[in-house]
Design a protein that fits this description.
By secondary structure, the protein is an alpha/beta fold. 32% of the residues lie in helices and 26% in strands. It has 14 helices and 24 strands. Strands 1, 2, 3, 4, 5, 6 and 19 form a seven-stranded mixed beta sheet that branches. The protein is globular.
């Protein structure tokens, strides 16, 4: 069968590419070996957020008296019901993607896709042709030889989504978004969690002030955070895991019921025909240009298998850019300097653009505006005063970066992301009337602080 465009992988990059191509009048086939929607909708972003919502509800119930609400009886987490709800949410999103594909007359082809020649794709023994083939095969949890995953005692994020019972103790290796979110979830439910981070601080990609704030937040959850610590080996001994580490105190052996490895992801590029066609690969990722063209005409790659942030919204943006370029619309390349990042812990973390350290490394003189949520009327009324807004401007007062910690800050990130993309100034942000009382006022207040005329500080 011949298509105008074939897309391999139906995650946020793949299905966005397929739908945009169909909107532009192309005949499209979408190849998927597992569930429609990929890892994000089925085993990543969405079900994880469902679990975190359940944990937040549990935490609110435990704190109900602080809000003048009296609850009788013991409040207990029911992990099986939380997991069931999470899986139901994922199933709903999966059906939604299937509906969109059908609505746009996209053929969903079940199976494993492998390139056999330019314009030719084999799917489990059946051959397909297309003028353009877009690879969007995503990534999987990275496995380390020192932590052999068995799915029971040594687990990945996928296993952590469907545990049958709460362990008493858990060690989480890695404090990026995935590790921190699961550590927060299980610690909130009462599991004794230890987070181990190889680098000198938690959430090492975030601004240093964010890292320090989140380490304090995890201590409030009674979770232990060990930074500058290396995991040498993990062994299963009966019903326990023995974790050999080396950190600030020297070599130690920790024990836990479960070890969750969250040390990043690995691109799914094996066995899809890259070598046979001579598609260039650099440092484990497919090499592409600004429109996601590989060195082989008619073959494209987007999402987690190309260099750049391994984020669902990045894959979707790359998908649209790639397809519109194929269709001759001359789109603007994706602006990676204005890519937002979110971590859905308690409190949440949201960021875009340069950190203070990155600006210093580039030799950029900066002006910084901060606003703590302890000074926010809305945060105080909500009982959510932890966190802050930090805005970084250059000498011309243009926004370089924004770093937020607090309740609901992931929903506030759109404004500074747009401001960063449009080159907005501190004056423009401070001069924009923000609704009161809102957490979002903190962005205006931080801009005012950078200008030296903050009202509430």
């Amino acid at each position: 069968m011949k298509y105008d465009i074939l897309v391999v992988g139906s995650g946020p990059g793949g299905y966005a590419a397929a739908i945009r191509a169909a909107q532009l009048g192309k005949r499209v086939g979408l190849v998927e070996r597992a569930e429609a929607g990929g890892v994000c909708l089925n085993w990543g972003c969405i079900p994880t957020k469902a679990l975190l919502k359940s944990a937040r509800i549990y935490a609110h119930c435990k704190a109900a008296e602080q809000y003048g609400v009296e609850l009788t009886g013991e409040v207990r987490p029911a992990l099986d019901k939380m997991v069931a709800r999470s899986r139901a949410v994922a199933e709903t999103m999966n059906k939604g993607v299937q509906f969109l594909l059908k609505k746009n007359n996209i053929d969903l082809i079940a199976g494993f896709g492998r390139l056999t020649a330019p314009g030719h794709l084999d799917v489990d023994g059946t051959g397909y042709e297309a003028d353009h083939i877009i690879l969007a095969t995503g990534a999987r949890p990275r496995e380390m030889p020192s932590m052999p995953v068995d799915g029971e005692r040594i687990i990945t994020s996928r296993h952590a989504l469907t545990l049958s019972k709460l362990p008493e103790t858990m060690i989480v290796v890695g404090s990026g978004a995935i590790g921190s979110e699961f550590a927060c979830f299980y610690a909130t439910l009462g599991v004794k969690v230890t987070v181990i981070e190889y680098l000198p601080r938690m959430m090492p990609l975030e601004d240093e002030e964010v890292s320090k704030t989140m380490e304090r937040a995890f201590r409030k959850l009674r979770a232990t955070v060990l930074t500058s610590t290396t995991v040498k080996a993990v062994k299963v001994a009966g019903d326990r895991c023995e974790v050999e580490i080396e950190g600030k105190k020297g070599p130690e052996t920790l024990t836990a019921d479960v070890v969750l490895t969250a040390v990043g992801v690995q691109a799914n590029i094996e066995g899809i025909g890259l070598e046979e066609l001579g598609v260039a690969v650099e440092r484990g990722k497919v090499a592409v240009d600004e429109y996601y063209r590989t060195n082989v005409p008619g073959i494209y790659a987007i999402g987690d298998i190309v260099a750049g942030p391994a984020l669902a919204h990045v894959a979707s943006a790359e998908a649209v850019c790639c397809v519109e370029a194929i269709c001759g619309l001359n789109p603007a390349p994706v602006d990676y300097a204005a890519v937002p990042s979110c971590i859905f812990t308690t409190p949440e973390v949201a960021s875009v653009g340069l950190t203070e350290a990155q600006a210093a490394e580039k030799g950029i003189a900066v002006r910084i505006g901060r606003f703590p949520f302890t000074a926010s009327g809305k945060a105080t009324a909500a009982g959510e005063r932890d966190g802050f807004v930090k805005l970084i401007f250059d000498e011309q007062e243009k926004l370089l970066g924004a770093h937020l910690v607090g309740e609901g800050v992931t929903e506030m990130l759109g404004e500074p992301t747009l401001a960063r993309k449009l080159g907005a100034t501190a004056q423009a942000i401070a001069g924009t009337v923000h609704a009161h009382p809102t957490m979002n006022e903190g962005i205006m207040e931080a801009a005012e602080a950078a200008l030296g005329h903050a009202i509430h500080l």
